[in-house]
Amino acid sequence: MKKSNAITILFMIAMIALLTWACGDESDSGIDGDTESEAPDGDDPDGDEPDGDDPDGDDPDGDEPDGDTDGDEEEESPDGDVPDGDTDGDSDGDAVIVKPVISNILALENINNVLSGTVTFDTDIDAYGSVEVAEVGTDTSWVVGPTSALAKSFEIGIIGLHAETAYTFTPIAATAEAGSEARGTAQNFTTAALPATLPTVNLISADTAQMAPGYTAVSFSGRGASTENGWLIVDEAGEIVWYTLDFGGVFHITSRGNILTTAGSVIVEYDWMGNAVLELDFDGETYEGEPVYGFHHDIIELPNGNFLALSRNAVEEVVAPAVARTVVDGDADDEVEAEQEVEAEVEAEAEVEAEVEQEVINIVGDIAYEITTAGVIVNSWSLFDYVSTDYRRTGFDSSLRRFPLPNNRDWSHGNALVYRASDDSIIFSARHLDYIIAVNRTTGALMWKLGENGDFTLSSGSWFSHQHAPEWQANGELLIFDNGNISQELTRSGTDFSRAVQFSLDYDNKTATQTWEHTGSVPYFASFVGDADRLANGNVMVCDGGRSLDFNGESLLSPRVAEVKPGSPNTVVFEFELPPTVTMEPVVDGDTDDEVEADGDPEMQQIVVQQWNGYRAERITDLHSRTIK
């Protein structure tokens, strides 16, 4: 028995020795946590490795082997560094971060606008592109981008620059991976002087703390040496930072981020670099057998992506001959309105002698067309269906010189369209009817007429006349620019004046209540064009587009834009104008090929008056990013 037990004990000792040999010396394995972790080759490169008291493998005293930033055992590169691309020191399968390589960088001028440019560059891998813009010698900088899609070639437009100013444009590229951003070589870029045909801007006041954010756009139309039509955008300091001479009048931003406007028979979308990206020409087109007489004053985008454009149509009427009529240009960019609405004396003879023949007149109304982006007219709404042509107000006897039918009468003179999704309504602003007219887009039914002799009784305030630019408010009220041409109740101290005015409408009781107005601290009169827009902070921007001022006894046009903070009283927090200029210039001898100027001869000098009007104004936010798609 004793011999058997001894043999068993010896067997167990041999097994333990065998296991110990198989597992290796505990000083090599470190299985009891009291020995040090060696470098992968079994050496301790500096003898200062942790003693095992750092339970998570971190190196609290910073004495880990070179290249191991988190205390884990890793294979080193030959020089002891972590392999390229391993930013956290782990060799546990992290992806290598690859940065794009930027090349072929160019900074190009924009022939459409000297206050803009284009940066082009390429990358060796797919990336998102941006450009950092910095004004030299200032702290002003911003980034345009990134682009919405990956690419290897980039063309990024830069807008919102000041004239005659130095900038640097630095291209930036990055993939979706953090830490992959690469920057290219900065490009120098200096803007040129503004075109001499642009109006100047006179900043009157700017309380930036109370202003709504953004830039202010205003249309202009010149009368005098410059007859340019266009738009310009100014910053809070009244400095011009963008302009176009390609179009005036209407200015709407589409869901694609482009600028929507019209030019005669053509609907155009422009990008912010001045390139036409969509053109629909309706010259010679018809709809339901009737000619499409081009477009005027307004075009908007509907929620379904179609356009709603204002056009004209006509019906004939036989009348007694008129002896005198006023001819006006009814286009939005220089809507003269019989030169400050001096009414022509129209002699409609009560008794026409038998030998005098009657004449045929063309009564011109307004029609709205719904048009797809492919140029197909799918619906229309004509004011002839909602108001009798027997209803005539001041302005009826004026004539549209650009309308193709002869002997015409400007009956309704529409100047705005607004769509409201909540009740599927289209409203027309009909200046010569002194009405705002709502129709149902789906059924085509008349909903109501607002204005003197309309469907609502005025419970307080005064009616508008020859109005422009109605705008629905968030509370359901209607904001309007009221030119006030024929409103007798808008005569204070014997002087007509214009205003921005807001009405609340009670559809059940058919009452309208004036809830707010702004007439300016000094009453003014803008006989034609104008705009009023609610801004994001609750202020109202008012454009007195056809404001007339007295300059040394002569009435000259000087449009003004004012941002108004409603209150008692209202406070103007931002204001600028496009002032007229009066200069003496040499008379040009136009009878010779070289047009010899009378060089400084006082007897050969002439007075040149340059004046402007402004159709509408808009507040533009995030201007710099408008070129990114």
Approximately how much beta-strand content do the residues carry?
A: 35-45%
Q: With helices defined by DSSP (H or I, 4 residues minimum), what is the helix count? A: 3
- Estimated structural class: mainly beta
Radius of gyration: 37 Å
Q: Tally of extended strands?
A: 44
**Overall geometric form:** globular
Parts with pLDDT < 50 across at least 5 consecutive residues? 21-91, 332-354, 591-598
Biggest sheet record: 7 strands, antiparallel
> Would you tell me the overall average pLDDT?
83
Helix content: under 10%
Distance between the termini: 95 Å
Verbal overview:
- The chain contains 3 helices and 44 strands.
- Residues 21-91, 332-354 and 591-598 have low confidence and may be disordered.
- It is globular.
- The strands form 11 sheets. Strands 1, 2, 3, 4, 5, 6 and 7 form a 7-stranded antiparallel beta sheet that branches. Strands 9, 10, 11, 42, 43 and 44 form a 6-stranded antiparallel beta sheet that branches.
- β26 (425-430) and β27 form a beta hairpin.
- The termini are far apart.
- It is mainly β.
